[in-house]
Amino acid sequence: MILGIRDENKYPSEKRVVLIPEHVGQFIKKGYTVLVQSSNKRIYSDEEYEKVGAKIVNSLEKADIIIGIKEIPEEEIYPNKIYLFFSHTVKGQKHNMPMLRELIKQKATLLDHERIIDDFGKRLIFFGKFAGNAGLIDTLWMIGKRLSKSGINNPFEKIKRAYEYSSVEKAKEALSQIGTDILTKGLPDSLSPFIIGITGYGNVSNGVQEMLSFLPTKEILPEELLHFSQLPNSKHNIYKVVFYEKDMVQRKDGTPFNLNDYYSHPENYESIFHQYLPYLNLLIHASYWDDRYPRVVEEQFIIDNWQKPNFRLLGIGDISCDINGGVEITKIATEIYNPVLVYNPNTKEYTIDLYSDGIPVMAVDILPAELPLDASQYFSRCLLPFVEAMLKANWDKEFKKLQIPDPLKKSIILYKGQLTPDYKFMENFISD
């Protein structure tokens, strides 16, 4: 089998790679041929892949297995190939249905990174931690700039955007220095207590909290929040609140919350998150959402409350970035180099102007791309054994008899142009 590695051409700012040269070299030493599509923007150069024995090509048409990170343009889908990438199709994302139909038409096999899961449904391949890392940095940058513009000197104005740091370690060093300033000089009275709310407790949330740990952070519980923000508190700390499902929704009929019931019947639940919003300085939305679930931030609540005296929310970091989704005022996905939209509740419109009136939302949808070196190294290390299993497999067999690791088999959405049993529900998306 010949392995092909794509140039990530969906976004001009995408520098990540699916496999780093070191790992490509390991496959070549085992006798595999690896084709690498030429790129002038990857974090690793063509020359670095050539040094380990890869062949640099313009087209991957001669590869048997083609792997990448982001979606593939329809014109680059070749007949009877095996593809592995984040397809963003299992929710029925309309913008990717033409791509899915083309994969079916070309009798392709599609595996999805996001669907490589263990027996408990836990994802084994992900960038989520780095999305959390970059999302927290960019959100603090956003707030620091806006506060400074309004005449409030604050330690966050020293933060750069995530892509301006050469590595995660450099970003941590910068946050640590800012943390020292907060410990010694404190925050302005108008920002104290400074409270950051974080939705979710998965990989993305952990990435957010990892970066926060380099600031003087103390944790409070959601039930403490309503009273805590009314009391005098230390100017030398930042307070974080992590929200679980039970904190954010309640059953409509008033019966007790049950997590399994919530996931099985989300239509029976309603959001109660609005009760916390006025007391947060920042909200980081880091949890999964789709349109079956109640919203975390409703547009009408922002319209009704944003100018009230007790409304402290300075901005939102929407790492999940579902358009008109969990955070309803996320109207578009923003770009790495211009990461903020500002929603004006008076006009119900948004601008891409960091300093305009309204609620600012950091809504970059490819945040891990801001930390391409660390993210690529981590992702490649996780993916390595699965790619090797793909290269060793006999793809001529019928799906039932295909022998590959179970997590990898679970990720097969299409097999030779046909939806596999676990993904038959997607027929409704294709026909729409």
Topology:
Layout: E1 2-5, H1 21-29, E2 33-37, H2 46-51, E3 55-57, E4 65-67, E5 82-85, H3 97-105, E6 109-112, H4 128-149, H5 168-185, E7 194-199, H6 203-212, E8 217-219, H7 222-228, E9 238-243, H8 245-248, E10 249-251, H9 259-264, E11 269-271, E12 282-285, H10 299-305, E13 315-318, E14 340-344, E15 349-351, E16 359-362, H11 372-392, H12 406-409, E17 412-415, E18 418-419, H13 427-431
Please characterize this protein's 3D structure:
It is a single chain. The protein is globular. The strands form 3 sheets. The chain has an 8-stranded mixed sheet with strand order 3-2-1-4-5-6-17-18. Strands 8-9-7-12-13-16-14-15 form an 8-stranded mixed sheet. Strands 10-11 form a two-stranded antiparallel sheet. It has helices spanning 21-29, 46-51, 97-105, 128-149, 168-185, 203-212, 222-228, 245-248, 259-264, 299-305, 372-392, 406-409, 427-431; strands at 2-5, 33-37, 55-57, 65-67, 82-85, 109-112, 194-199, 217-219, 238-243, 249-251, 269-271, 282-285, 315-318, 340-344, 349-351, 359-362, 412-415, 418-419. The protein is of the alpha/beta class and 432 residues long. It is built from 13 helices and 18 strands. It starts with a strand and ends with a helix. It folds into 2 domains: 2-115 and 375-419, NAD(P)-binding Rossmann-like Domain (Rossmann fold); 128-370, NAD(P)-binding Rossmann-like Domain (Rossmann fold). 30% of the residues lie in helices and 16% in strands. The mean pLDDT is 95.
